[in-house]
Amino acid sequence: MYLSQFLLLAAVLFCIGIYGVLARRNAVLVLMSIELMLNAVNINLVAFGAFRRNVVGQVFALFVIAIAAAEVGVGLAIVLLIYRNRASIGLDEVDLMKG
Amino acid sequence: MLDNVWLIPLLPAVSFAVILLWGKRLPSKGAESGILAVGASFVLSVVVAAEWIAKSGPREAIEHSSTWLQSGSVKFGAGTHVDGLTVMMLLVVTFISLMVHVYSTGYMHGDRRYTYFFAALSLFTASMLLLVVSDNSLQFLVGWELVGVCSFMLIGHWWEEKDNSDAAVKAFLTTRTGDVGLMIGIITLFFAAKGSFNIAHLNQLALEGGISHRLLLVGGTCLFLGVVGKSAQFPLHTWLPDAMAGPTPVSALIHAATMVVAGVYLIARFYPVFFSGFSIDAGGVNAVAIIGSITLVIAALLAFVQDDVKKVLAYSTVSQLGYMVMALGVGAWSAGIFHLFTHAFFKALLFLAAGSVIHGVHSNNMSEMGGLRKHMPWTFRTFIIGSLALAGIPPLAGFFSKDEILLGAHENGFPLMLVVGLIGAFMTAAYMTRACYLVFWGEYRGHGHPHESPPSMVVPLQVLAVLSVVAGLVNTWVVGDRLRFAHWATVPGTEELIQRFRLEHAFALSDAAISVAVAVAGIGLAGLYYFRGALKPIRGLTRRSTAARAGYTLLVNKYYLDVFYTDIIVGSIKGPIAQAAYWFDQRVIDGVVNGAGVGAREVGRFTYDVIDQRVVDGLANGAGAGAEESGSILRLIQTGRVQQYAAALFGAAALFAVGLVLIT
Description:
The complex is a heterodimer of chains A (99) and B (664). Chain A has a single domain, classed as Helix Hairpins, CATH 1.10.287.
């Protein structure tokens, strides 16, 4: 068991997440990608916690999961409202804040 | 009552307000209010006088004052000061004013401004009383100026005629000329007394030598200017004869009680200042005595050539005021104010009697009178009594006071003033004989039927006539020691000064004989000339002799003093001086002003064009334009697409990560 294996996995997951956030036009998929990124971080936290024989990493991971749940709740509500207003959830169409 | 003297001026003041507000609705149109108030003041004055005279031992002046406002250590207050001089003045002012009020109900009957007239009379009396009781020079000045304003109102009572309003303005402006001096004097003496307006304190300092002689001389001279204006002394006497334009009761009031005697009262009140300032104890001559004696003679001369009966009396007042001022100037303080006292009665009597005559014949001119002794018996009798009192025939009032003045001049070492006083006594007797003859003897020369005046006018005449006979006895052994004028009409603290000339010895038979002889000579000569038609050489002298004609012309033109004032002083101010001032104003002052204006305009234009338009506006606009430019550039990156922002975020994070790795 090497720490680097977990870190590598987390890095790969994080990158996939970034790709999803940046490249997907579907808002739901973007939310899912964000979830990926968060979980990559969770893996890092748990891995470091185990490596340092410290329980703090796992506690933090639990916090992140809780907050991720809240975030997804709010995010999905926003997406739902956007869909109701525009009959579409394409993110490239949401540019009301264009300067 | 000695502690509540403030009531005495207050009552007429209240009456003034009452008449002004409700006078027209009162049953007698306001007259009763004035008579009641002044009558009450008179009664109170009598009480005050009785209490003052009844005081035993050395009398102390009674002062009450309250602070009106305080600025630093300087107190401006109002207060009362009671001593013998105050008591005497209170008696004279309230009594004469009461007589005039009663008389006016007859004389002014049916006048269109009857109510207004009584309101002004009340205020006049109140002002004079305020002046008389004041304990500080500031309140004195207030009363003094109020008296001036009231005289202005009353002299110009019939202002519809230009002459009358001119006379009022003249009286006001002429006395104002002197008042400037008075004001400066009061300020000077305020500082001389180390920041106090209190008159008694000032007198004390002057008496003890706490103030330098030079300061007293300056202050005294300035005060004396005020006296010259108010008491019609040479050369500012010209307003008083013109003031005859007012109704006759007003003339009586002005001459006997409320206006011109204020000046004499001022000298008497500030006597230590004058005494030390003008070195009166040195004898010989001093400014006060000189001005008094000049006034005495020139006014008496003018009285000979007047046709208007009131102007004869006016010049006689000027002349008698000259006596009073001269008396104070020669150090005969008691004699001076005693003359003020007696003069008030017989001069009020003469004026009111003259008013009665004018009321009867509807003319002021003696050329339209004559033979009136049959038509107006009471007026005739009282006028004769007044004339004899004025001429100084014993035992009438004028004899005693005039005699004391002459004796004072003699004893205090002023021989010149004694001679002038005797000449004045001679002339007084002569011109009064002339006036009596022209009014009451000979044939009636006027129009219509003269008639005796109503009782409201005759009764005051009779009362005053009685007093004119007996007033002089107040300063003799007849009334006893306690009641004797010189014993109670004193100013505590200055007895030493004012009684240097002891009045109980003031009856020297030789002097009295001389003055009576002179007066009888005056009456006799004038009587011979007018009644018997004797002294033929004098008759027509003005037609035969150039010198006499020149003198006559000089007198008719009143020594050209009016010409001097109106044409030379006012004329030069109106003419060349005004033009020069106009030129200076147009060229110099306006030049400076205009230059300043143009300069300011140019500076303003430069500021506007360069600083404001270019610099300030440039900065403001530049800031705006810069913000706009930068905004329009920056808005390009504000696409509104979340994913682009995220890309920028992650890209930047990645760059930082790379940087971090490279650095470490």
